Amino acid sequence: TEVAAAMIKTDERLLIKPSERVPVDGVIIKGQSQIDEALISGESMPVFKSIADKVTGGSVNLDGVLEISATSVGAESTLAKIIRLVEQAQGAKAPVQALVDKVSAIFVPIVLLIALITLVSWGLATGNWQQSILNAVAVLVIACPCALGLATPAAIMAGTGTAARFGILVKDARALEQATAINMVVFDKTGTLTVGKPELVSIHTLSGDEDDLLQLAASLQQYSEHPLAKAVLNKAHEHNLQANAVTDFQVVAGRGVKAHHQNARLLFGSGFWMQELGLTLPQIEIDVPGASLSWLVSQQNEESNFLGLFCFTDQLKPHAIAAIKQLKQQGIKVAMLTGDSQSSADYTAKLLALDDYQAQVLPESKAQYISNSQQAGYL
User: Fold this and answer.
1) With CB atoms counted within 10 Å of each terminal CB, which end of the chain scores lower, N or C?
2) Cα distance between residue 154 and residue 151, in whole Å
3) For 73-95, what is each residue's pLDDT tens digit?
4) Residue 99 has what pLDDT?
5) Cα distance between residue 332 and residue 378, in whole Å
6) How confident is the model at residue 198 (pLDDT cuts 50, 70, 90)?
7) HEC string of 288-332?
8) In 3-state terms, what secondary structure has residue 176?
9) CA-CA distance, 208 to 217, in Å (whole number)?
10) E strand or H helix that includes residue 264
11) What is the rounded distance in angstroms from the CA atom of residue 277 to the CA atom of residue 190?
12) Would you put residue 286 in left (φ > 0), alpha (ψ -120 to 50) or beta?
């Protein structure tokens, strides 16, 4: 039964079908899927979620059927809190605005007093009270600090509103004033400096020909919404290859996917995953700089055979190089932190002329890097 999002209550169970938007914050109690959280986090790469993981209202369920239990609804949802933060930032007073208010509190009575003196003195001196009123009004018009009191809040509202349209959440109006003193910017790589839409650029075959491996990979990836899966399927479409049926498809979080095809189990994923399974990676010379690598493996009768190595690249965003260059010209230090491989980070950093970067960085390590930079005097 479909119900309006406003009618959902805490602890109620909801069924979220593929391509549907998650209406409220909740926790998954059944199923697994790739979740697009770009609306909330700005990250273009989908995030894999399974049982006991939290999902955020406003995100999109891409490929699996999920059953969730609502934890936060209405005004308590994450999306509602973000909206409130923007509204609070627009209504907050920056330090310069507080100073303007103090000046206005003193300046306004003084202006009124000067206008009154002008009115009385001009009227008594000339006897022309009509002209004296005009002169007093002129003093009020010229000297009244209305512009001081109105310009700052108007600028804050315009600034926070424009930032929100570009996906930038300003939590405190003071940040707008402090932005002029920023001397360091730290970027993520995937989806920030790069497009976030990888392309399959080469296949190194170890068994069979390239089209056979591409068709197997497409068959395995047809039920996935991961960007690498889309890259495989796009390449298969270019080669006019049709995906075959597979069974027992399963996503292995952070590692890859697996399924049964004919009488074998196929695995497609990272070298780290293959090593976790106790497999020794074949030595292959890669001629694609900065590539992300995925292995295709066939398992049958307790034997594992490496079929091929798939190389993906993610293009830089069109204005990334120019943006980094402009920041450097302004004397701002630029750093890049990424969870991607060292080779991929090296290649991207070379294209962007970055000297300060780190690869295979966990989220908590990124937070520590920011904290250390702030302690070193960077803003």
Assistant:
1) N
2) 5
3) 888 888 787 777 666 655 656 56
4) 67
5) 10
6) confident
7) CCCCEEEEEEEEECCEEEEEEEEEEECCECCCHHHHHHHHHHCCC
8) helix
9) 13
10) strand 264-269
11) 27
12) beta
H and E: helices and strands count for the chain: 12, 16
Q: Do 92 and 79 meet the contact criterion of CB atoms below 8 Å apart? A: no
Residue whose token pair is 């000067």: 114
Distance CA 230, CA 200 (A): 9
Q: Please give the Cα distance from 52 to 73 (Å, whole number).
A: 18
In the block, residue with structure tokens 């627009």:
90
Vertex 215, ends 232 and 50: CA angle to 5°? Answer: 55
What letter represents residue 50's amino acid?
A: S
**Do residues 198 and 313 lie in contact, with contact meaning Cβ atoms separated by under 8 Å?**
yes
The amino acid sitting at 20 is E
Q: Name the residue with tokens 């004397």.
A: 331
Q: Which of 63, 188, 314, 340 is catalytic?
A: 188
Q: Six-digit token pair at 34? A: 């790739």
Whether the full predicted model's pTM is greater than 0.70, yes or no, is no
- 172 in catalytic set: no
